[in-house]
Amino acid sequence: MSILAGIDEAGYGPLLGPLVVSAVLFEVPGEHRDASLWRMLSECVSDDPAAKTRIVVADSKKTYNRSKGIGILEETVLSFLGLAAPETPARMGELLKLLAGDEAEEALAYPWYQEQDVAVPLSGRALGARSQAERLRRVMAERGVKFLGVRAIPMFEAAFNRGVAETGNKQELLFNQSARLIAGILKRSGADDLVITADKQGGRDRYAKLIAKKFRGSRVTVEEQTRLRAHYHVRRGNARFELRFVMHGETHSMPVALASMFSKYVRELYMEIFNRWWKPHAPHVKRTAGYAADAKRWLKETAEVRAKLGIPDEALVRQK
Questions:
Q1: Would you state the pLDDT for residue 10?
Q2: 187-192 contacts, C-beta under 8 A, 24 or more apart
Q3: Which of 239, 304, 310, 314 is deepest in the core (most CB within 10 A)?
Q4: Structural domains for the chain
């Protein structure tokens, strides 16, 4: 058997809200390690956001925006989560704890993330996620595929600012978060054949030095380094794995696309909590998604109330 892992992020560019990096794991028969999971599971999974009867697994930028709503994103996330968890939590805080583990505790240091007693799912479309999960489980079993789980790491504003100050740039910060997930995958996986695919990170083309720095004592063999793709074989003691960074990885790898959706969903849950907390403090200010232009509008309109509340910018606003 082979283990296929996908890693992707959401929230790399915004000024407000967390950066979330997620990893998902699948087990597949060794002869299918390079096959398309979309094709193998086409009976119940589609990369077309317009699909009505199948679970959509695609780049989160194609499956979610404010006009489309969170329905597609939430149905997919909760369907796959149904394969790994005995039952889906009914409250947002419980769901975030399930996805993020101990990392979710860090949110409680920020007042605008503390009110997590919100019912989930947020959309009616996701109410059928449990039955979708059973259908998905059946098809995957027929193909010899297993979903092994997901981990999402949120990094909140003040921690993000400290991390950028320490590394000097966002690219290395993002890689460090991905490396934490890779370390967890190595600890969990007992497979001799592990392939980890990630979307290209911040425009970086070369990763060998970063891999060697984060996984000290490793032997890193460069197979390919181009603008479109970077491919490495890594040996660390008895552990061996392939690590691939692919431009537009969400369109080439279903695990990467699914990781993108988990990351986006976790970020949107935190932004939902964020906006709910701020509403009574600034009732006439429209919600924000946290991205540059809209975040600047929101910051301007909340400047007076933030000063009254004594909230420092370094705890709220990401610096890069």
A1: 96
A2: 188/25, 188/148, 189/3, 189/25, 191/1, 191/2, 191/3, 191/27, 192/240
A3: 239
A4: 2-273 (3.30.420.10)
Query: φ, ψ for residue 17 (rounded to 5)?
Result: 85, 170
pLDDT at 238 over 90: no
Token digits of residue 67 = 């006009």
Question: Quick check: 60 and 263 in contact, CB under 8 A?
Answer: yes
Give the chain's mean pLDDT.
93
Element (H, E) at 196: strand 194-199
- Residue 56: phi and psi, rounded to 5, are -90, 125
CA distance 3 to 19: 26
Burial of 301 (0-12, 13-18, 19+ CB in 10 A): middle
Pick from 288, 7, 271: which is nearest to 122 by CA?
Answer: 271
Strands 55-56 and 45-46: parallel
3-class secondary structure for 273-319? HHHHHHCCCCCCCCCCCCCHHHHHHHHHHCHHHHHHHCCCHHHHCCC
Q: Is residue 80 pLDDT above 70, yes or no?
A: yes
- How far apart (Å, rounded) are the C-alpha atoms in residues 287 and 290? 9
Which tokens sit at 110?
Answer: 């920020």
3-state SS class at 151: strand
